[in-house]
Amino acid sequence: MNEAYARVRINAMIESAGFKTYNYQISDPSVGYEHDVRNIIMRERLNRAGKVPDYHFYAPNSATPMAFLEAKRFQGIKLDDALKQALDYARIACDSDEPPMLVFASDSIQVRSQHADGSELSLNNYPIDYIPSPTLMCELVAAPAAAQGQAINSVKNIIKLFEKVSGFMRSDGMDAGMERLREFCALLFIKIMSERGNISARENWQRLLSITGQNLISEYKDIHQNYRDTYGDIFSATQLNNPSTLEQIISSLTPINFTNSAIDIKGEAFEYFLAEYNAGAKSELGQHFTPRHITAMMAALLAPQTGEKILDPFCGTGGMLISMYQHIRMGLDSEKPDFKDKLHELQNEILYGNDISGGASSLAKMNMIILGDGQSNIQQADSFDTLEQHAYDKVITNIPFNLKGTINRQQILPFLQASGIQITDYNSLCVVKCIESLKRGGKAAIILPLTFCHSPDYKHIRDYIARKGRIRACIRLPSKTFVFYTTAQTAIIIIDNVHVQQTDEFTYIHLKSDGMSQDKKREPVRENDMCDLLEYISENRVYEAPNAVRMQYRSGGSFLEFQQMFGTPENVWKLEELITIKNSKSMLNPDSLYAEPGLNSQSNLICVKGNLRLGRNINAEKVIANEGDLIIGTLHTNNGNGLFGIANREYICTSQIVATIREDRVPPEYLIKALRREFPRQLIPTDLVGRENFTKQQILNVLIPRPSPEELSDIFQEQKRLENLRLRVKQSQQKFDQLLSKIS
Known about the structure:
alpha/beta; 5-stranded mixed beta sheet; 22 helices; globular
């Protein structure tokens, strides 16, 4: 992506925030380019220093810039360096008695921000990673501290707001669930439209703030009806009749800037109000609303264009379609003659979405309207009712995980015929829906449960995917990506050249950091592997990305690294081939030492020789571990680690596998080293909620890389040499002790 193209996208980003980038009047919130800094004194300072800021932002009727932005091409200089460059410009331009400035850097995918004094620019302690609206930018310049409460950027805080509003509605006699959700979202829609600079919407909200009593109810119903007349059935008739309730809700929403919030407010509202209706139970629709930064990454991976047809068959509240819209919109050059035609095409002929929930599809339409879309082509529909085969260029979706119920064979007959496989579960049916909807050469990004990528239950559908197109990447997402909805681990499958090419080789990537903390708080952190991933994929070097492994696909195989064969079957052992399991025995001596299962908190992985935790367990089955035996704990932990080591004396084991190592096949030191690498790596994907232990067979199936005969011979020789050295050291120590004893 060159810098000129990046600037076209940044222009669209700036326009979406509410600034004018061309044909502007001095009274508009606007942006200037490079040398045309309006403030003459600032311009001269910059010229003397040879500095040219790419963009400068102005409040209405102002000649003094309130912010600089430095633009860089995506594969170019790191954004933190670009931000320092913008900061340098701001310090040169501003004198000590002049108003403070903000600085930004962007490559059209990401945005970094700071105050000109070098401090972080944030709302609610959440770094601003977008171009703020003109109003918010003015507030941040004038009084940064005062602007801190303007946006909600944590799920915890938005839930508090939902609880407050739901309580107001409960007091008004409104039913829990969809009735409260629709009412809340109607008010939210009016509020967000007022924030985005829509004059009539702003006047509507100001009128609602200025009146009380029955006049407020009458005014709200008139406004509400106007929206129903304009936008149709996404606005149901209002049920609010108590002016006090409406006043309290409006008062709660007014101080908040929803436009600049970093989370999908309507997606969170949908989940909250329906969970409240179901007494805290999660929605049975299997919907897990995808975080905004993940949908933006998926859109960047798919690189949608005008002229394409794009489908989300399980669109929920429309988050993925929004990201696709924004990605395309940022690529449109507003100064080109065909801009209006392409924008009209984007708003009406490109994006399509279905969702079985009427509430979710209505919210998706609201989201698209707020974005500037012409409601797109979103409808309430069961995506399994029809199969529009080979109709779309791109598919993007987060499938509804693990839907329950019996599949209607008559309903899915077209899917069976198109795919040529037997479908027995809804996860597989969702995937077939996505792939069969694509045209020849189409491309998809699909979020799936991680078990789909490795479980034997899904081997036929994995073969189907590999046969239908080229898998570019299987991207394992961080474990806490969907922590607010589910503990299920997830992955994104990127597939292209559908119906044209088969998969031979693909790349597995473990995305360890997505810029958010890996705990239930999900707060922003600086570590973020997504940036590098996008760069490598854009350059067709995905296999060089951090934590990437290039893999061959074999029929019935896995998409995950732990199942990658190390060449041919001759180059790998199963653990069961290298050890002999010892049988349990009845033990009568309760004073013997026991090896107790557990993790060593210091190593977080392995209790090594001589460091096994000791305890007592009199009643369990017992196995004697002699010196030199391998002890493997079956304890299952969330990170897939276990406990194992070589016994340095006799132990009694109650909850472990005890085995002798077949030293004719493998040196013990090599086996332990291989287990330290392969045991956690291969058993992590089997991490299921509620499982307390690994099964014996899971452990015995761990694959151990087999060295070549020459390498193995060298290892044996080195091991023998080490044993001789240890024996000589032991003998020397004994001789030394004897000498000391004579002296003493």
